[in-house]
Amino acid sequence: MDMTLVAGLCRFVAARAASGGRLWRREWAGAGLCAGAWRRCPTNRTGQEPRPGRPDTSLCTGEKYCGWVPSKTYEGEACSAARALEVVGERWSLLIVRDALFAGSSRFSQFQRQLGMAPTVLTARLRDLVAAEVFAVAEENGRPSYRLTEKGRALAPVVIALTAWGDRWVPVREGRPISYRHADCGGEVKQVIECCECHAHLAPSDIVADVASWAHEVKRSAVAARTS
User: Fold this and answer.
1) What distance in Å separates the CA atoms of residue 169 and residue 183, rounded to the nearest whole number?
2) pLDDT tens digits, residue range 197-221?
3) Over the stretch 56-76, which tens digit does the pLDDT of each residue have?
4) Measured between alpha carbons, how far apart are the two ends of the chain, in Å?
5) With contact defined as beta carbons under 8 Å apart, do 131 and 65 qualify?
6) What pTM, to 2 d.p., does this model score?
7) What is the C-alpha separation between 155 and 97, in angstroms, rounded?
8) For residues 190 and 181, what is the distance between their CA atoms, to the nearest angstrom?
9) How far apart are alpha carbons 123 and 118 in whole angstroms?
């Protein structure tokens, strides 16, 4: 028997026991796995599964996935960057956030038209982002509307920083495709890394990582477990 399958079944049984025997499932989207992580079934007012290719409108009621887990986790990484990637590191996720921030997209059809995503993949990404509270869903004219939460809007600097990095290091021949500007005066927006004490602008070589003692211990234990 495939040992990977055996290990997966063992994790499923352990998780099911820890959840008090509640049913878990693995989500599918189109031809491939949507998430690859075992998740508790979402509950909605009808008790039915969301239909493939459509957003789960039961989330309009404000109900959340109980025990939602990221589709990708970085075990042994006591790092906020790793935790952020667990939420928005999937392909398309940041582009969905980008279009909500700067292109005015909020409808399922708008995201699909702008990004050209398969409906099943878009459904999965929006469902995960709602479950992670990056988006909230409201009912507007009988259809779900996806609105960024404060948590989602806080990703704006991330999108702008990635755009600047892409402009410099993976440019296109035609020039910069997007520039971000101040809505009031039209000036271009740029980001700087500044010291909170002396307000100096810093290069990467000027920065050191101050790792908390508990995080260092987590990392040390993870490395030891991998090398034992």
Assistant:
1) 27
2) 999 999 999 999 999 999 989 988 9
3) 433 333 334 344 556 678 888
4) 26
5) yes
6) 0.69
7) 8
8) 9
9) 9
